[in-house]
Design goal:
By secondary structure, this protein is of the alpha+beta class. About 30% of the residues lie in helices and about 25% in strands. The protein contains 22 helices and 40 strands. The protein has a 12-stranded mixed beta sheet with strand order 33-32-31-34-35-40-39-38-24-2-36-37, with helices on both faces. Strands 3, 10, 11, 12, 13, 14, 15, 16, 22 and 23 form a 10-stranded antiparallel beta sheet that branches. Helix 19 packs parallel to helix 20. The chain is globular and about 85 Å long.
């Protein structure tokens, strides 16, 4: 049976390679293990070029710093001057014309977002781009709403109570010979700590409160493991003044230095505590607790946001996983595809040095016996390298090499991408697979440790802050930069909206404080019910008796909601194989042309499900429902009720109504999902409402390849939705609201500059130059913010409908947080909304209330969901297309919620 609750995650984007450069490896830069000896005396060759002295002082640093030999240190005033650093269409065919015109428009940026995560980790050109705040958020009350009951909340932010307003100097640091490992770079530079004074170093850039003279100089270090002399070139690049965006980056660099002093291990972007690991031997897993931390500038203060995190460390190597997949090769010819999909995009940790790498590809044509070129031009195999360098013997035989894009290469200097080749046998897997997610026992056992209630979460966050403020090295680091951190969580006032009225066909009700109206739904008539003329159930013949009983229960459940499901035609099949379904589906459609086909499948095999959906969503355009045999056998009335609701929705019915007063508004949701097998293909799904009740929908899916302009496809979808709206209503909508999911922080500038602009162009094609008022809202689910309310038993989750639009919001944005769900276990996660364009001019209070209303309208769940319904529907459609259909669906279904 298709899941009733909305899925909480989605496939992350994965950066792809156009070519693989075999033999290129950062490992080749490390020479064989040598005898360790005492450090030689360091000399400092300094260029003799003289600089004109610069006079003046700045208020930082609070302590004196001895200069490097031959380098004069001068505190300088902030420099003056610039710093571095028509017509109306009458039919749907007009959409084709619009599409062509979009392709001729030039996108302003070369960056092409493929959905959330697709360019994650790459340095952005406009990484501190700020969209101008829409006029609607600049009134007397700003972006704050007024509705609802005020509520006192705590947030997982710690105030930074004092800091020095400093002027920092930024230097570029190069190493000769080149060094790839940041830890080694830090060690080489640290040999000159006394000479350089206080500094922060991120692997490429050094930040100091002192301006060195001359602006470019060299230092000489010795690499410990082999006594290799390394020349370090330090070159002045920029002045970072108080208030600069880069100033906050330096705060974060300082914070990460402090976290290293807590003896935490960096895995990916976050720090984890291996000493506090939790062993789950029965599942061959370890859970490493850790922290996500970031410092940012918020409404009235600079705050440290801290959130607890858990890293799943599996007690198996990538080679073990390869062998598991290969063991199934006789039954599954796609075993290598399964292996790749289970590894590509994940993070692994190397056994020999605890370094982490994100796996970007697999090279089936290389193995540990393959040779790579060293810097001196000689060649050696990976087996030889690991034996000489790490005294490790590779025993796994033939195993395809893993490829990781060098973390620090292209994004800083525009240099050629460097690929790191890794041996599967030496890489421990992290994270969980789809098979693990489907293991109920495993997830239940894991939830004991990962679902942390508000009280325990607050305690762990406070302990973290106290640890940060009591570890001597961390305290020294903070004092050196005159930074004072509070260990008290930030207090703020939010507002809780009233429960939203919900309408059935006969009476109204609401979901109460838990925003759940399941009990009302089961006993009242649905708002509108579809008419079902005839429908068919396909099932293996040996379970037809159970199917008959299930069909009766389904009809009974539907009848309780005054939805008439006539007796179905049960079509027995010889077995439950995919080919059998394929043949019989074609036969049933040709003979009886049913309104809906329900397929009973014997097991949750993805290939059978995908085959059925491809047949009925692409080839023949028939609404379908797939149910697992075990659910048919259980014949549970609660499950039957949910399936009856799904069937009604898929045929055009609406289980309930939430009133939205504004007439003529079209509400759009958009999301992106990647093809499960073809890495360079993504699908953008657009879902829009087609009536004033917002119970009728239009949907379309636009495929696009990596490097293709997604914004064009988004604007094409908007054009199709407008054309369909006019066809159905005889007029165009008077206003539009777009909820855009699948956008990472670094992609907002691109969406603002291209997607919004192309949407305006699309609207002008329909409305003329006056266009149509619209609002464009970015929806972000993956956030670290958490909020806690006080209850009779201590800290608890805020109630659904809680709005936060002050203190922890961004002063440069029109944004707010909304807690829309009730959760019974763990801490509720809010959703962040950012209005990046608004010519509609709805007051902030109306925008917030509208957003909360829309979280009630996802018909797969009789309660609120985390995002507005059109957004959740777009995700559902994009996910179905990317995982199962892998092609755009048949347009014959575009007015039905066939993807629920």
């Amino acid at each position: 049976m298709e899941p009733i609750r909305p899925s909480r995650g989605k496939a992350r984007g994965r950066p792809q390679f156009s070519t693989i450069q075999p033999g290129v490896s950062c490992l080749s830069n490390l020479p064989p293990q040598g005898m360790r000896g005492p450090r030689p005396t360091i000399s400092h060759p300094i260029p003799s070029s003289q600089q004109t002295p610069v006079t003046g002082t700045i208020p930082w640093p609070p302590r004196s710093m001895p200069p490097p030999n031959g380098i004069s240190q001068q505190k300088a005033p902030r420099p003056l001057g610039p710093r571095s650093g028509t017509g109306d269409f009458t039919d749907v065919t007009g959409v084709q014309t619009i599409t062509e015109s979009f392709k001729n428009l030039a996108a302003e940026d070369a960056l092409v977002p493929l959905g959330r995560g697709a360019i994650r980790g790459r340095r952005q050109i406009d990484e501190h781009f700020r969209t101008p705040r829409p006029q609607s958020s600049l009134g007397v009350i700003g972006k704050q709403g007024t509705s609802g009951q005020p509520v006192k909340l705590l947030a997982n932010y710690f105030p930074i109570t004092s800091y020095t307003n400093w002027c920092l100097y930024q230097y570029r640091v190069d190493f000769n010979p080149e060094e790839d490992r940041i830890s080694t770079k830090r060690g080489l530079l640290a040999q000159h700590r006394e000479l350089l004074g206080g500094y922060l170093f991120d692997g490429t850039m050094l930040f100091s409160g002192t301006r060195f003279d001359p602006p470019t100089f060299e230092l000489t270090s010795s690499r410990r493991q082999d006594d290799q002399i390394v020349i370090i070139t330090v070159k002045f690049t920029n002045v970072i003044e108080t208030g600069d965006y880069a100033n906050i980056q330096v705060f974060n660099l300082l914070l990460r230095n402090c976290l290293r002093h807590l003896k935490l291990t960096l895995i990916g972007r976050n720090f984890y505590d291996p000493d506090a690991k939790i062993d789950m031997a029965q599942h061959k897993l370890q859970l490493w607790p850790g922290y996500e931390t970031t410092i940012g500038r918020y409404e009235d203060n600079i705050l440290l946001c801290a959130e607890i995190s858990t890293k799943v460390m599996r007690q198996e190597t990538v080679l073990d996983f390869l062998n598991q997949c290969a063991a199934d090769r006789n039954r599954n010819k796609d075993w290598m595809i399964n292996f790749k999909s289970g590894v590509v995009g994940t993070t692994v940790m190397t056994k020999y040095n605890n370094e982490t790498y994100r796996i970007d590809d697999i090279d089936e044509n290389s193995d540990p016996n393959s040779e790579f070129s060293k810097k001196d031009g000689s060649k050696m195999t990976y087996i030889q390298y690991y034996k000489e360098k790490w005294n490790i013997t590779i025993r796994g035989g033939r195993q395809p090499m893993l490829i990781s894009k060098n973390k620090k290469s292209v994004r800083r200097f525009g240099a050629e991408d460097t690929l790191v080749y890794l041996v599967p046998e030496l890489c421990i897997m992290t994270g969980i697979t789809d098979a693990m997610r489907n293991n109920f026992t495993l997830m239940k056992d894991m939830a004991i440790h990962t679902r942390v209630n508000p009280k325990e979460r607050m305690e762990r966050l406070t302990n973290f802050a106290n640890r940060l403020l009591s570890t001597p090295d961390s305290v020294t680091e903070l004092k050196r930069w005159n930074l004072t951190l509070s260990n008290k969580l930030v207090e703020l006032t939010g507002r809780t909206l009233q429960p939203e009225p919900i309408q059935s066909r006969s009476k109204g009700y609401n979901g109460g404080e838990e925003a759940d109206w399941t009990k009302h739904l089961r006993s009242l008539p649905m708002f509108t019910s579809a008419t079902v003329k005839n429908w068919t159930i396909l099932a293996p013949k040996d379970c037809c008796r159970e199917v008959e009983a299930f069909a009766q229960s389904l009809s009974k459940a539907a009848q309780g909601m005054t939805f008439v499901l006539p007796r179905p035609v049960i079509f027995p099949m010889v077995d439950g194989k995919s080919n059998t379904f394929l043949i019989n589906l074609e036969k049933v459609i040709n003979e009886s042309n049913p309104s809906l086909i329900l397929c009973v499948i014997p097991s949750a095999r993805g290939d059978i499900y995908s085959m059925i959906k491809r047949k009925l969503c692409i080839d023949r355009a028939v609404p379908s429902q797939v149910v697992l045999l075990k659910n048919v056998q259980k014949n549970n009335l609660s499950v039957c009720t949910k399936i009856a609701i799904q069937i009604n929705c898929k045929l055009g019915g609406a289980p309930w109504l939430v009133t939205i007063p504004k007439k003529g508004m079209m509400i759009v949701g958009f999301d992106v999902c990647h093809d499960s097998q073809r890495k360079n293909i993504s699908f953008g799904a657009l879902v829009s409402t087609m009536n004033d009740a917002h119970t009728s929908y239009f949907s379309c899916v636009e495929p696009h390849e990596s490097g293709e302009e997604l914004s064009v496809h988004f604007a094409t979808g908007i054009s199709k939705a407008l054309a369909k709206y006019r066809t159905k209503n005889g007029t165009l909508p008077t206003s539009i609201i777009v909820y855009r999911d699948g956008v990472g922080e670094g992609q907002i500038s691109h969406v603002q500059k291209t997607e919004v602009r192309l949407m305006q162009t699309a609207c002008e094609q329909f409305y003329g130059t006056s266009s149509v008022p619209f609002a464009f809202v970015i929806v972000t689910k993956r956030i670290s913010a958490r909020f806690f309310a006080s209850g009779n038993r201590g800290p608890e989750n805020p109630r659904p409908g809680t709005i936060i639009d002050s203190v922890v919001t961004d002063p440069t944005k029109y944004d707010f947080f909304l807690v829309s769900q009730h959760v019974r276990q763990g801490t509720v996660t809010p959703t962040h909304y950012q209005v990046i364009e608004d010519t509609l001019g709805l007051p902030p209070d109306i925008m917030q209330r509208l957003t909360f209303k829309l979280t009630h309208m996802y018909y797969n769940w009789s309660g609120t969901v985390r995002v507005p319904a059109p957004c959740q529907l777009a995700h559902k459609l994009a996910f179905l297309t990317g995982q199962s259909l892998r092609r755009s669906p048949n347009i014959g279904l575009d007015e039905l919620l066939y993807f629920l």
